[in-house]
Amino acid sequence: MINIPEIKLYGTDGCHKTHYYQLVLNETGLPYLFLDVEKDTNHAEELRGLYENRKLNFPTITIGTKKLRNPYKEELYKWLYKLIPSMTKIAHNKIDKKFRFTINGEEAWIDYVLKEGKMYLVHSEVPYDLRGRGIGKEMVLQTFEKLTEEGYEAVAVCSYIKAIAIRSEQWKTSIG
């Protein structure tokens, strides 16, 4: 199961910007909580607690512990992609023999060697500042999905890839 941080939208029904963010978040298909700060004093107090000045700064969106005050759509998507790796899709570059996972301009990848119809997954790499967010795990799982769709059999050579596959009910028997 993919770990999706809790997403909250603090705003009011009468605010056009709040309505805009509801549309944007609905577009993503991700679950989120709409917390009306005018109708519920608990929601208002929760929002005040996010700011040192204790003001009702809305609309505010939180993604886990990340707080975004009235962000541009591009900034919101940047943080969604960064904090929710499952939103990013793997790309298979057959020329370079890599599966690439690009998040906000930074690239994680898995190198492979193709031999006798089997894909030997030999190395995985996640940029340092993207580590610790589940990006490597999501990349491995999507790589297995993609190579299976393309008709290949996987052989996990890289110890990290092997560890992820072994922990996955779906892929533990297909690591070669």
Low-confidence stretches: none
Shape type: elongated
CATH superfamily of the largest domain: Gcn5-related N-acetyltransferase (GNAT)
Kindly report the spatial arrangement of strands forming the biggest sheet: 5-6-7-8-9
Quick one: biggest sheet?
Answer: 5 strands, mixed
Counted beta strands: 9
**CATH class of the largest domain, please?**
Alpha Beta
Rg over alpha carbons: 20 Å
Intertermini distance: 23 Å
Overall mean pLDDT stands at 89
CATH architecture of the largest domain: 3-Layer(aba) Sandwich
Overall description:
With 176 residues, the protein is α+β, with helices and mostly antiparallel strands. It folds into two domains: 7-85, Glutaredoxin, CATH 3.40.30; 88-167, Gcn5-related N-acetyltransferase (GNAT) (Aminopeptidase, 3-Layer(aba) Sandwich). It has helices spanning 16-28, 41-48, 73-83, 135-149, 159-167; strands at residues 7-11, 33-36, 60-63, 66-69, 91-93, 98-103, 106-115, 118-125, 153-156. The strands form two sheets. Strands 5-6-7-8-9 form a five-stranded mixed β-sheet. It is elongated, with a radius of gyration of 20 Å. The mean pLDDT is 89.
What order do the helices and strands come in, and which of them pair?
Blueprint: E1 7-11, H1 16-28, E2 33-36, H2 41-48, E3 60-63, E4 66-69, H3 73-83, E5 91-93, E6 98-103, E7 106-115, E8 118-125, H4 135-149, E9 153-156, H5 159-167
Parallel strand pairs: 1-2, 8-9
Antiparallel strand pairs: 1-3, 3-4, 5-6, 6-7, 7-8
